[in-house]
Write a structure and sequence with these properties.
126 residues; mainly beta; 4-stranded antiparallel beta sheet; 11 strands; 52% strand
Length: 126
């Protein structure tokens, strides 16, 4: 079992920045792909970014490319999502998810993940 917890959300003005953290505990041995997803009210959960378990690849959605960066600190079992130049359309609940040996492009599908955090709210005001 893997327990996942997100933190770092909040209210920010358009153009501002936030850094979200995703801390994992439990059986977090190597081999886990981590994904960030978000869900706005009335919309489906959508892919934001992923760090593939091989350590060699990261991917971000086109809507956030050039603004969001995903990174991982293995020593801390933590994955970060640095969000810059935030826009009101980035508003939503951001979720972190873990799954073993998940490759690309499956890592963009939320249905492929077994372990999820509770989410953290990000609100970007205009």
């Amino acid at each position: 079992q893997v327990q996942v917890a997100e933190s770092g959300g909040g209210l920010v003005q358009a153009g501002g920045s936030l850094r979200l953290s995703c801390a994992a505990s439990g059986r977090t041995r190597s081999g886990y792909t981590v994904g960030w997803f978000r869900q706005a009210p009335g919309k489906e959960r959508e892919f934001v970014a992923t760090d593939i378990w091989t350590g060699a690849s990261t991917y971000v959605a086109d809507s956030v490319k050039g603004r969001f960066t995903i990174s991982r600190d293995n020593a801390k079992n933590t994955v970060y999502l640095q969000m810059n130049s935030l826009k009101p359309e980035d508003t939503g609940v951001y979720y972190c998810a873990y799954d073993r040996l998940l490759g690309w492009p499956m890592a963009a599908d939320p249905l492929k993940y077994d372990y999820w955090g509770q989410g953290t709210q990000v609100t970007v005001s205009s």
